[in-house]
Design goal:
19 strands, 6-stranded mixed β-sheet, homodimer, Rossmann fold, 7-stranded antiparallel β-sheet, 9 helices, Dna Ligase, domain 1
């Protein structure tokens, strides 16, 4: 366990926790039935925020990195989940190709690759890392400070198949969110499984679509559990055709922000919450959240200076922002060593593997923690998500708290499944 | 880790370990393909013996008890495996009924029931314990020393279905090896899954059939891995129509024992093993091993006194012994606190969950450790079976050793799958 972690073990969130614990068999059965109809995304990391009065996902990453931050205890679960996933996708698989982010010499990211490679090797695959970065022209061996090594090899396209020299994979696992668009080399592959699919790429996906799916999932789950879905759902609305630099669409944005703040204010009143509501503005598409901005009053948008506007105008990969997602801000009540912290829950296939805390010492509880200076603290979620302790008083048991986190993370994963089904360009349409 | 455990990390077994590590992707794929054709037994515990020169299963229990001895670290793996198993068997399941052994007031066995109940509750089922012991006439609540409680309820048969008052299960899990035969109340159930099936019961199963299947599995696995299957297989032969009390069939038994000892002696010579070979005689059917007897020379059988003969004549549940399994004795080279120890590996669905050591302070390395006075030491197999460490020198890494144990345990599980398919009275026959 992480020392000095405050997981907000008090407050109304305890009622939610108790409700979920009491309904555990019903919840698990509900997921089981959902997975009969829907295919889970291959892997995800769900970023949650625990406000003490609600618990909601704020981002569902379909190309999760940071597997290296998971504690050793969680790896056997990841291996077991990987075995289950492979068995379903391609039971005859021998070879798996991992496609990493481009242009990365980030040692932490490379350690993430080593960890993914380890997990899939233990699950019984030959695993190699093939870069689509045109700068990688030959196999490059990189030694990490802990003695691990990773070899980046240039991918080769041969007809309809992607591989490496003398390595023809059955499955290609993207750990690259395709932040600058879909590279042609990945298109029209023949007879190979590409996971996640290309339409999960950051420039194709819309966050607003994801949260519309999440809203639907949350409503159905809330009905089953007998709770107000707002307790697990951040109110979200898209706003299209916004140009921060030219100032086009700003009035509409202001109106929408105001409308959303009014909704949140009403909910705060209903629940007797005395904090000041706020929203977060994010680019609806593109690598997530770097331009995310908290807004407490629609008027703040009028007063945006040039610097703030140009920061919002592009994603971290330099893609222009055209549509904005306005999302209810969920303050975090969690701290690690006095720093604001938010849980990140990892899933593979339909299983919760574990989690880490993202911690930022310089950011407030209303701010986005995905920013330079953030660090990760592995958290022994292990027993947590799978081993809740019914009968223990709510708010006093970390395993019970983490069971709830695992449930909400799976709701986010389920929403991603709905989303990918709805946006699949190759989906068969039955009319 | 268990202190003072000597897992025989030296000797020729290291070559086997190295071979398995090197072939990990091939081994895992081999199992994946096998599970496409065969259904894994719901759960098993495989009792292994590591002789330093070979590693072989000596018993594959299809109604494993002792789940309470597994360390806490292993439970999330059990929950995840249970989720996978339920999803395949009955994804709509709400209720699971566990049928325990009869006549048990053994606190350790009851703790095992609590643990099983906990695992399946976490996997999302309402779980209750229904006894088929006619002595259980009303719900009986038993408190365990650690504060856990278990409620034994009398089962009710209503038409074709078995359940409890106001509890209609979809799946019935036997944790009762049916040592005195198949009770009528379990026969001809309608629309309910009974796991394991009745033909896995101790009085129906033949150990000789299991080991014939294991021999087949071992040969195929050995061929794939390029090893002599004897390294993972105890030579076994059945001997029918033996009556220890009347002395009938004893000459034939002596001949068979002698023949098997000769085979083992030949193998010992081939591998330069200087120990004295021996065989173990077991009742071919019935609750296992209580009458198991080591024999170093066929002539010993002539000199058996009345007491020894009558001990062999019945199983621990008083069932008469008619057929005998003669099995190559595998001495154990493992010790916990200077006591002879043997690993017991638990599986659920196709997954290795973890393991414990069975330890007997008063038994020799050639003797059966399943006897009064035996105890169990939970062993942190967790990382072991899923997280081997390639590149580490063989014989120095417990995780690598336990990976090998997990492989051999899965071979035993696969043999049980073959066995249950071959002995299924309802199997469809294609001619």
């Amino acid at each position: 366990m992480v020392p000095h972690l405050i997981t907000a073990l008090t407050g109304p969130i305890n009622e939610l926790e108790q409700r979920m614990l009491d309904a555990m068999p019903a919840i698990e059965r509900w997921f089981r039935l959902e997975w009969m109809e829907h295919t889970p995304p291959f892997y995800t990391s769900a970023h949650l925020r625990n406000a003490g009065f609600k618990l909601a996902p704020v981002n569902t990453n379909l190309f999760p990195r940071g597997w290296n931050f998971l504690s050793e205890d969680m790896l056997p679960l990841a291996v077991q989940a990987a075995i289950a996933a492979i068995e379903k996708i391609c039971p005859e698989a021998r070879n798996l190709l991992i496609i990493p982010e481009n242009h990365t010499r980030n040692l932490s990211y490379l350690a993430n690759l080593v960890q993914l490679q380890r997990i899939f090797q233990r699950a019984g695959l030959n695993v190699r890392v093939g870069s689509i970065d045109p700068g990688v022209k030959k196999a490059t061996r990189i030694e990490l400070p802990n003695g691990d090594t990773v070899v980046l090899e240039p991918v080769m396209r041969t007809g309809g198949r992607l591989g490496l020299k003398h390595f023809d994979p059955c499955t290609i696992l993207l750990n690259n969110e395709l932040a600058t668009g879909t590279p042609g080399i990945l298109e029209d592959l023949y007879g190979q499984y590409l996971l996640p699919p290309l339409h999960a790429g950051a420039t194709v996906r819309c966050k607003s679509k994801h949260f519309r799916c999440y809203e639907e999932v949350g409503k159905r789950f809330g009905k089953m559990l007998g709770i107000d879905p707002w307790l697990i759902h951040p109110i979200s609305a898209p706003c299209e055709d916004v140009d921060f630099v030219q100032g086009a669409g700003m009035e509409r944005l202001q109106t929408e922000v105001d409308a959303l703040l009014t909704k949140v204010r009403r909910k705060y009143k209903e629940y007797g919450i005395h904090e000041k509501p706020f929203v977060i503005l994010k680019a609806d598409q593109g690598a997530y959240s770097m331009g995310a901005m908290p807004v407490h009053d629609a008027k703040e948008l009028e007063a945006l200076n040039r610097k703030a506007r140009s920061k919002m105008a592009v994603t971290k990969d330099g893609m222009p922002v055209q549509a904005v997602l306005i999302q209810e801000g969920v303050p975090t009540q969690e701290r690690v060593h006095e720093s604001a912290a938010e849980p990140v829950v990892y899933t593979m296939d339909r299983y919760v593997i574990g989690g880490v805390y993202r911690v930022h010492p310089e950011r407030g509880t209303n701010e986005n923690l995905n920013a330079p200076g953030a660090s990760f603290v592995p958290l022994a979620f292990t027993h947590g998500t799978q081993m809740p302790q019914p009968g223990v008083r709510p708010g006093t048991s970390a395993p019970n708290r983490f069971y709830m986190y695992g449930v909400v993370a799976r709701l986010a994963m389920l929403a991603a499944s709905y989303e990918l089904e709805a946006t699949d360009p190759n989906a068969e349409v039955y009319d």
